[in-house]
Design goal:
This protein is an alpha+beta fold. It is built from 16 helices and 19 strands. The strands form 4 sheets. Strands 12, 13, 14, 15, 16, 17, 18 and 19 form an 8-stranded antiparallel sheet that branches. Strands 5-6-10-8-9 form a 5-stranded antiparallel sheet. A hairpin with a 5-residue loop joins strand 8 and strand 9. The longest helix is centred in the last third of the chain and has 20 residues. It is globular. About 50% of the residues are buried.
Length: about 450
C-alpha cells in the first residue's frame, strides 16, 4: 500500500471537489474512531461521495494507486469495522441520503446507503407499512452500515434481522465496477445469491450504494409488558415457556440487576430495584391475537414466580417501559470512563447458564459488568464498565472477553450475533469458523479485491 500523498489527495479533490475532501488533522479526528471503545487511528483523509458514480471513480483510482479505502456511514459500529488504518482514505456515504422509491404495490423501498434506519422506518410508517429491523443506533445508523454489518435489533426474534429485508443491492466493486444484484420479485433463484455475499461483509468486498428493502404491513395492535424476577433462571424459564406455548413476541428482552439499577438512576422509569432480572415483552399483530398472547405471557410469568408485572395502558407508557431496554447502554456508559459493549449469542436453552458464566468471570477478574440483551434469541450484551487508561484492568478485560467467547462457542453459540467481527473479534474467528470456512472467505475476498484495497485488516489479516 502507498502512503497518502499530496498527489493522491489532489486526484481525490479533482474527482469529488475540494469541499468534499478533508485533510486537516482537526477535521480528521471525528472520523478516527467509531462506536467501539478504546480504538482510534487517524486516517490520511476523509472524502464524501454524493453519487454511485463518485464512489466508483474513487474506488477505481484507489485500486490503481493501491491506496486503502475504509467505508464509513455514521460510525456507530461496535467491532471496529469502520476504524481507519494509517494513510487510508475514509469514504463516507452519509451524503447519499435519498429515499428514491416507495412502491406500495410491491411493498418495497429503494434507498441510498446514507439514509438512516429511522428515516426508513418513518417513511414506511407514513405509507401504512412497516420496516422491522431496529438496531439500538437506529436514530443515526445508516442503512449501508446496517447491511454491511447485517444488524439486528430488539424485534429480531419475530421479524428477523437486516438480511431478511434486503431484496436487492447496488454495490461498487473494488475496481470501480458497479454491480446490481436482486430485484422486486419475491422469488428469484437465477444464479448465485450475490446480495447475501455482500450482506454482513463489513465493507471488505464492495461499497454498498443503494439498497432495495422489503416492507411488510404495519401491525394493527401492540401490547407492552414488563416483568421482574428474583432470579435470572426464573426469567429464562419464562422465556422458554413462552416460546414453548408457540408465542413469538416481537420483543423479548432482559436486563440484569446492575443494568436495572443504572437504567433507573439514568431514566427514572420507576423500575423495581429488588430483582435480579427484568423482562421486556411486546406482542403485536391482530388485536384479538395480541390480547390473547398478552394474557398468556402474563400468566406464564406469574407461574414462573415473577415479582411484579406491569402492562402499558397506552402508547406513551409503552414507550416509557420500552425505554428501560433502549437506554441500557447509555445508562451503563455513565458509570465508568470506558464502556465496552460486547456481543455473544448462545442457543436459548443455554442463556441462563451463559449469564451465570459472565457473572462468574466478572467476579474472578474483579471487573464490573452489566448484562442485557435479546433473551428471546439468545443474544446477550455483556457490557464492561472500565477505564482504558488502567492497563492492568484492560488486560483483565481482554482475558474476560476470551473466556466469554470460548464459553459461547463451547455452548454451541457464536462470537457475534449482530456487531460483526471487524478488528475487535478477528482473533477469535478462526476457532469459531474452522479452517475450511476461513479458506473460502479468504479466497472470496482475494477474488473480489485482489489488491486488498477495501478495509484491509478487518475480519482477518
Amino acid at each position: 500500500m502507498h502512503e497518502l500523498t499530496s498527489e493522491i489527495t489532489g486526484r481525490l479533490q479533482s474527482i469529488l471537489g475540494p469541499a468534499n475532501v478533508l485533510t486537516a488533522k482537526e477535521d480528521l479526528i471525528p472520523y478516527s474512531f467509531d462506536g467501539t471503545a478504546a480504538m482510534q487511528q487517524l486516517p490520511g483523509c476523509v472524502v464524501f461521495a454524493h453519487t454511485t458514480e463518485e464512489v466508483a471513480s474513487v474506488l477505481k483510482f484507489a485500486n490503481e494507486a493501491r491506496t486503502p479505502v475504509v467505508t464509513r456511514g455514521s460510525g456507530t459500529g461496535l467491532s471496529g469495522g469502520s476504524l481507519p488504518i494509517p494513510g487510508c482514505t475514509v469514504l463516507c456515504t452519509v451524503k447519499m441520503g435519498r429515499i428514491l422509491d416507495l412502491d406500495r404495490a410491491n411493498l418495497t423501498m429503494l434507498v441510498e446507503a446514507g439514509v438512516t434506519t429511522l428515516q426508513i422506518a418513518d417513511a414506511a410508517s407514513a405509507a401504512g407499512l412497516f420496516y422491522p429491523p431496529d438496531p439500538g443506533s437506529m436514530k443515526i445508523s445508516t442503512i449501508g452500515g446496517n447491511v454491511a454489518e447485517n444488524s439486528g435489533g430488539l424485534r429480531g426474534l419475530k421479524y428477523g434481522i437486516t438480511r431478511n429485508y434486503v431484496m436487492g443491492l447496488e454495490v461498487v466493486l473494488p475496481n470501480g465496477e458497479i454491480l446490481w444484484t436482486g430485484n422486486k420479485c419475491v422469488k428469484d433463484v437465477a444464479g448465485y445469491s450475490l446480495k447475501d455475499l455482500f450482506i454482513g461483509s463489513e465493507g471488505t468486498l464492495g461499497v454498498i450504494t443503494k439498497v432495495l428493502l422489503r416492507l411488510i404491513p404495519k401491525p394493527q395492535a401492540k401490547r407492552t409488558m414488563v416483568a421482574t424476577f428474583a432470579h435470572m433462571d426464573q426469567a429464562a424459564e419464562a422465556v422458554s415457556a413462552i416460546i414453548a406455548a408457540q408465542i413469538i413476541p416481537c420483543t423479548l428482552e432482559f436486563l440484569d440487576r446492575m443494568t436495572i439499577h443504572c437504567v433507573e438512576d439514568y431514566a427514572k422509569i420507576g423500575l423495581p430495584l429488588d430483582c435480579e432480572a427484568l423482562l421486556l415483552m411486546e406482542t403485536d399483530g391482530h388485536p384479538a391475537a395480541v390480547a390473547e398472547e398478552a394474557t398468556q405471557m402474563q400468566n406464564i410469568c406469574r407461574e414462573k414466580g415473577c415479582l411484579e408485572l406491569r402492562v402499558a395502558k397506552d402508547e406513551a407508557e409503552a414507550n416509557k417501559l420500552a425505554s428501560a431496554r433502549r437506554t441500557a447502554f447509555s445508562a451503563l456508559a455513565r458509570v465508568a470512563p470506558t464502556t465496552i459493549l460486547e456481543d455473544a449469542t448462545v442457543p436459548r436453552s443455554e442463556l441462563a447458564k451463559m449469564i451465570r458464566f459472565v457473572e462468574a468471570v466478572a467476579r474472578r477478574h474483579k471487573l464490573k459488568i452489566g448484562t442485557f440483551g435479546h433473551m428471546g434469541d439468545g443474544n446477550l450484551h455483556p457490557t464492561f464498565l472500565t477505564d482504558e487508561r488502567n492497563q492492568d484492568e484492560m488486560h483483565r478485560v481482554e482475558q474476560a472477553f476470551r473466556e466469554i467467547f470460548e464459553e459461547a462457542i463451547r455452548l454451541g453459540g457464536t462470537i457475534t450475533g449482530e456487531h460483526g467481527i471487524g478488528i475487535a473479534k478477528k482473533g477469535f474467528l478462526p476457532k469459531f469458523a474452522g479452517d475450511a470456512q476461513m479458506r473460502v472467505m479468504r479466497e472470496l475476498r482475494r477474488a473480489l479485491d485482489p489488491n486488498a484495497v477495501l478495509n484491509p485488516g478487518k475480519i482477518f489479516d
